[in-house]
Amino acid sequence: MFVLGADGALGRDLFLRILYGGQVSIEVGVFAALIAVSIGVVLGALAGMAGGVVDATVARLSEMVMALPVLFLLVLVGASSLGARLQDVTFGVLSEGVFAVALLIGLFTWFYPARLVRTQLLTLRRDEFVDASIVTGAGMSWIFRRHLLPHLVPSLLTWGALAVATG
């Protein structure tokens, strides 16, 4: 018995086909969000902690990527030879083509978490607990890992959940 029926002469179960499509969509969304958050945290942390020329460079780079039409670029890269080579990458776990689409979406959406991280770091690095850590002799990488990164996690998880839903 087919819950949603079967299609045409082949008799394939429509419910199972919908479930499989949902699985692929969730895989693409999760991996695209992970790639975007990974790139965004690194670039946003560099911009927020270093400031100056680094901050301006990351800001201009993110503005350039924001101006690109993502869907057009996805189709363009997907039709190229690079897209054809990426289609076969599965890592033994993913469906065919999932990594290629997730990588492209992640590469064109990293600016959202980067701007989020940069903005929060500009605010947090002026707080008293950061000044206290500097006075005690802590390095900036230690301050970032121990004090600032935990403040970024809730915002990044929220953005990631929304990105999975839209990716």
Radius of gyration: 21 Å
Write the CATH architecture name: Orthogonal Bundle
Q: Beta-strand level of the residues, as a percent range?
A: under 5%
Tally of alpha and pi helices = 8
Major sheet size, sense and barrel closure: 2 strands, antiparallel
First-residue to last-residue Cα separation: 33 Å
* Secondary structure tally: strands: 2
Structural class of the helices, strands and pairings?
mainly alpha
What CATH first level would be assigned?
Answer: Mainly Alpha
Q: What attributes does this structure have?
A:
MetI-like fold, single chain, 8 helices, mainly alpha, 167 residues, 2% strand
Structure characterization notes:
The protein is mainly alpha-helical. The chain has one domain (13-166): MetI-like (MetI-like fold), CATH 1.10.3720.10. Helices cover 78% and strands 2% of the residues. It is built from eight helices and two strands; from the N terminus they run ββαααααααα. Strands 1-2 form a two-stranded antiparallel sheet. Helix 3 runs antiparallel to helix 5 and helix 7 runs antiparallel to helix 8 (140-166).
